[in-house]
Specification:
It is built from 11 helices and 5 strands; from the N terminus they run H-H-H-H-H-H-H-H-E-H-E-E-H-E-E-H. The two termini are 20 Å apart.
């Protein structure tokens, strides 16, 4: 049975979304280009430091809006930036004779219009109309009008603004699709976790439900016999004691994942879970482990699978299986030092008890979990192992199903 996922701290408290990664890539590649282009335009058109300062405000407004957009928080500063950039275009065209001063309003408006909650198309049309209107006003206030003036102040600013704004509409749709896919993948992973929780609860009910019912009946019988037939009542109490002890052992096996596992079934289950979450799975098998080795390797695979589903932004998982070991490599691990082990630490101790070894490594966004066992590894049975509570201190259902810290702050 697949136990509920345990924790991993291979990701930060809040995972970086694919949407933000795309925007971050835009930020690192486009921001220097925009800053350089704006600086050159200001330097070419400004004839004094005062004019340069005003024209630079439009460039700064565009850069601030772009940085805010890349961080997914455009609107707190969007409209102030748009007002500043629009004023700079009017000042540049009507006062400074700067044909490039539309840079700021075109950039900010192209970012804002597609993300308006309503009337996006109307907003885009209004933006383009404003840019064109300022250009026409420049021509009317500075006759005579030449063909070059029409191109420089009307056609080019209006056309560039329209094209850039138009391109941002499919860009927005792209990010919306990325977000939908990401949310869908997260829901699939959460559903997988929920299914495994239900399976765990069902197994626990199977173990304890029947026992408790029998205990209730035997206690009622012993109560009636205690004064009539003390020897028979004593036999009933002994049977109750033995039954409860057996149930405690079986519950411990369930809680600590000590029930017999089928490695092939675990491998197939892991593949199904990964594929349901949109993760590509590559499996390499070189030999078939014996039943005892396969049980421990199945536990390693199970633990690693739930960690990846719950906490990694993985797109690919590679599983290499041999007769005495398993290696699981996933991408999507964040940069940083190797996290403190949690759920895997218990398995690390169990493998060490039988002469095996479990290691983890993190490098270049990839997390590797590797386990190797001696050829005749003995799988611990139902006897208590180090760290297992005494029979009078068996974990509750909540502890069994969720023995881990809060979500997104866990460790592997």
């Amino acid at each position: 049975m697949q136990t509920p996922p345990r924790a991993s701290s291979t990701t930060p408290a809040r995972a970086v979304t694919a949407q933000r990664r795309f925007r971050g890539l835009n930020l690192t590649t486009m921001l220097p280009v925009l800053a350089l282009g704006g600086a050159v335009a200001v330097a070419v058109d400004a004839r004094s430091w005062g004019q340069a300062a005003v024209l630079a405000l439009g460039v700064v407004a565009a850069l601030v809006a772009f940085v805010q957009w890349a961080g997914g928080r455009l609107f707190p500063l969007a409209f102030p930036c748009l007002v500043v950039a629009a004023a700079v275009w009017a000042y540049g065209a009507l006062v400074v004779d700067s044909a490039t001063a539309f840079f700021g309003v075109a950039m900010v408006g192209a970012l804002v219009a597609p993300r308006l909650p309503r009337y996006r198309a109307a907003g885009a049309v209004a933006l383009v109309a404003y840019v064109a209107a300022i250009g026409v006003a420049r021509l009317l206030t500075e006759p005579p009008v030449s063909t070059g003036d029409v191109i420089a102040y009307v056609l080019l600013p209006t056309g560039i603004t329209a094209v850039v704004t138009g391109l941002m509409f499919p860009n927005k749709r792209f990010y919306d699709v990325v977000q939908e896919l990401e949310e869908s993948r997260e829901r699939e992973a959460e559903l997988a976790v929920a299914r495994e929780r239900i399976r765990f609860a069902s197994d626990l009910h199977d173990i304890q439900g029947h026992t408790l019912h029998v205990v209730k009946l035997k206690l009622a019988l012993a109560r009636r016999l205690v004064h009539v037939d003390p020897d028979r009542a004593d036999d009933e109490l002994r049977e109750i004691h033995a039954l409860v002890g057996d149930t405690i052992d079986r519950t411990r096996e369930l809680v600590y994942a000590q029930r017999r596992l089928n490695l092939t079934a675990e491998l197939e289950n892991a593949k199904n879970l990964f594929e349901a979450a949109g993760i590509r799975v590559l499996v390499e098998r070189d030999g078939v482990p014996d039943a005892r080795t396969g049980e421990l390797l199945g536990q390693v695979l199970r633990e690693t699978t739930t960690n990846i589903l719950r906490h990694a932004q993985a797109t690919e998982v590679r599983v290499a299986l041999t007769t005495d070991g398993i290696v699981v490599v996933n991408d999507g691990a964040p940069p940083g030092p190797l996290p403190e082990l949690g759920g895997l630490a218990a398995l690390q101790e169990r493998l060490a008890d039988v002469g095996g070894e479990l290691t983890v490594a993190q490098d270049g966004g990839r997390f590797t979990t590797a386990a190797v066992l001696p050829e005749t590894a003995a799988v611990p049975g139902t006897a208590a192992t180090p760290g297992v509570a005494a029979t009078s201190e068996v974990a509750t259902l909540d502890e069994a199903a969720d023995r881990r810290p809060p979500a997104r702050e866990r460790s592997r």
